[in-house]
Write a structure and sequence with these properties.
The structure holds 2 protein chains of 2 kinds.
Chain A (H helix, E strand, L loop, with lengths): L6 E9 L10 H4 L3 E9 L8 E5 L5 E9 L13 H14 L5
Chain B lengths: L6 H6 L1 H9 L15 H8 L3 H10 L7 E3 L1 H10 L7 E5 L10 H14 L4 E5 L3 H13 L2 E9 L7 H12 L3 E6 L4 H12 L2 E2 L5 H22 L5 E5 L4 H12 L5 E7 L22 H9 L19 E5 L1 H15 L5 H14 L7 E4 L11 H10 L3 E5 L9 E5 L8 E2 L2 H15 L7 H11 L3 H17 L1
The chains are: A alpha+beta, B alpha/beta.
Chain lengths: 100, 474
């Protein structure tokens, strides 16, 4: 049970595939337009429930409860060895003298 | 009685929602045909240069430093013919409060919103502009909602856009995230209607005029330091506001610098495609926005865009994703500067253009942006590799967007490829005739199209004649 007042993330379908704009490409038309938003839970609920939240602009938004205390985990990715090769090459040209 | 909120009904209410949320009656600038009075729109609804400077300096926006890139210039000269290799500079717009030049646009928009008594601002943007609006709204005590296109249908977010969501939230905004598709505009309209907030569009006169200070500063700073204006100013071209505002500011300073637009070549990838969304390593500053917004500026979220790049762009070049990644790494390893992607698109172009210019000439990239988790070359390349994009060294001219990223095996392979501006101008004229369903353009239309394309009326008439003949022969 997630308590009222907890900071949560919700998910909602905005447009079903059948409702999508005529100009979108076929692969986009085959899927729904989805939305995610965050806010304070307005009543006790469980994951997967349809809930109401109050966002930081004090709007009420509805959707399926999917996360509590949502956080970001984007990062600097995995090591890319090519970057070190670039460093070596251009430092060689500029500081090592002459063209490589 | 509650209004119908299905897609078609909401889109049909667009004109009234726009009028209420932007506060501009665009009808009074219209001629009833192709032409509208652009300068009147900029005058009556914008601010004077001095007013804009006061607004921006009051919120710590602008007066950003210009840096000379001595080692990058040396690298360019090592690749250039004898006597060639102009001095390369950047204007460090990353030192604005929100980390990009977009703070200039947002400062004006938010100032204007507050002056008109709006309680909050909304912007539809997946880019730096969101953070800029959030930052300015925080200072002004206004509420802020940013609507962004962030995820594909598998729920995978573009790392750079995820980072921008984080930054907007850190600055107090509500971030409404959507999956891929232009119907983002539908949710945007619903939010404007629900909240009554100001539409801090990127394309209003306030926003575009806000960038004029950037062009003006460049001229003043160069005159003070070198006694002359830069020979070339390179602007990363997406929606066109960056280039338009900068060029207008340069003109207001009386500078005759050549204005060059630069975009990352993403040809072949569809911008509204769910499948293509995460195959691109650049979320803006690419041809997917840069070309259509030049060919037809009035595709934006306001009836008449104040960003009209073909009025100001004297040359338009593309660079590859591999070129920009390589140049970003050069900036870090040779100049000790880690900066975000957008400015580095222009930097890759400037690196190539410098080699066409004399050594005593000056070329400036007019922006940098912040970098960090997600919006750094390491996560972008890592993300591309995990999506099956082949990354290797070679000749960037063989790069196929969405399939591979070719890092130049030598810096001399970095090239700025010209886009034929006359073709783009013709495309603009063709769309104008079609959009307004005009068979015989008025004299005012002809003069307007000449201004829109930096051409004379004789050229416009000739192009219109050709287009009309095509119609007959079909």
């Amino acid at each position: 049970m997630i308590k009222k007042g907890e900071w949560v993330r919700i998910h909602k379908i905005i447009l079903q595939p059948s409702e999508r704009a005529p100009q979108v490409p076929d692969d986009t038309k085959a899927v729904a337009l989805e939305m995610w938003d965050k806010g304070f839970l307005k009543a006790d609920a469980n994951f997967g429930d349809e809930v109401e939240i109050e966002t930081v602009t004090r709007r009420t938004e509805t959707g399926t409860l999917i996360e509590v205390n949502p956080y970001y985990d984007h990062d600097y990715g995995k090591f890319i060895p090519e970057l070190l090769a670039i460093d070596k090459q251009v430092r060689g040209i500029v500081f090592g003298g002459g063209k490589e | 009685m509650s209004k119908a909120n299905d897609y078609a009904s909401v889109m049909a209410r667009k004109p009234e929602i726009m009028l209420k949320s932007v506060g501009i009656d665009y009808a009074k600038f219209e001629s009833g045909s192709i032409a509208f009075d652009y300068e009147k729109m900029m005058r009556e609804t914008g601010y004077t240069l001095e007013e804009m400077q006061n607004i921006q300096y009051g919120v710590n926006v602008g007066k950003t430093p210009i840096m000379e890139l001595h080692n990058l210039t040396a690298l360019a000269r090592s690749c250039a013919p004898e006597g060639k290799g102009a001095r390369i500079f950047i204007k460090d717009e990353a030192s604005n409060p929100s980390g990009s030049f977009k703070a200039r646009r947002a400062a004006n928009a938010v100032y204007h919103a507050k002056r008109l008594g709006y309680k909050g601002v909304i912007s539809a943007t997946s880019g730096n502009y969101g953070a800029a609006v959030a930052s300015q709204a925080a200072m002004a005590g206004l509420k802020c909602i940013i609507v962004q296109e962030c995820y594909d249908s598998k729920g995978v977010g573009q790392p750079e856009i995820v980072e921008k969501a984080r930054k907007c939230e850190a600055l107090g905004a509500e971030v409404v995230q959507l999956s891929v598709g232009p119907e983002l505009f539908y949710k945007f309209l619903l939010l404007l209607e629900e909240t009554g907030y100001f539409n801090a569009s990127l394309y209003t006169p306030f926003g575009i005029a806000g960038v004029e200070t950037l062009g003006y500063e460049i001229s003043m700073q160069f005159r003070e330091r070198f006694g002359k204006d830069p020979d070339v100013v390179v602007c990363t071209q997406a929606g066109g506001g960056n280039l338009t505002g900068t060029a207008r500011g340069l003109r207001k300073a009386g500078a005759a610098s050549q204005v060059v637009g630069a975009s990352v070549d993403l040809s072949g990838l569809h911008m509204a495609s769910d499948g293509d969304f995460n195959k691109k390593s650049f979320t803006t500053g690419h041809t997917g926005f840069g070309v259509p917004f030049s060919n037809w500026p009035d595709r934006s979220d306001v009836p008449r865009s104040a960003a009209r790049p073909l009025r100001y762009m004297q040359r338009y070049v593309t660079v590859t994703q591999g070129d920009v990644f390589y140049m970003t790494e050069c900036l870090a390893t040779l100049e000790g500067l880690e900066k975000g992607p957008a400015g580095n698109t222009s930097l890759a172009a400037a690196f190539a253009l410098s080699q066409e210019m004399d050594r005593d000439q000056l070329i400036i990239v007019q922006e940098t942006e912040y970098t960090g988790a997600g919006k750094h070359i390491q996560p972008q390349l890592s993300f591309a590799r995990s999506n099956g994009i082949d990354i290797h060294f070679g000749d960037p001219k063989d790069e196929v967007p969405g399939k591979n990223i070719i890092l130049p095996s030598h810096p001399s392979l970095i090239k700025a490829t010209d886009i034929d501006l006359d073709n783009m101008r013709k495309s603009l004229i063709r769309t104008a005739l079609k959009t307004y369903n005009v068979e015989e353009p008025t004299e005012e239309d002809i003069r307007f199209l000449a201004d829109e394309t930096m051409k004379d009326t004789a050229w416009i008439k000739e192009v219109i004649g050709t287009i009309q003949n095509e119609g007959v022969s079909k």
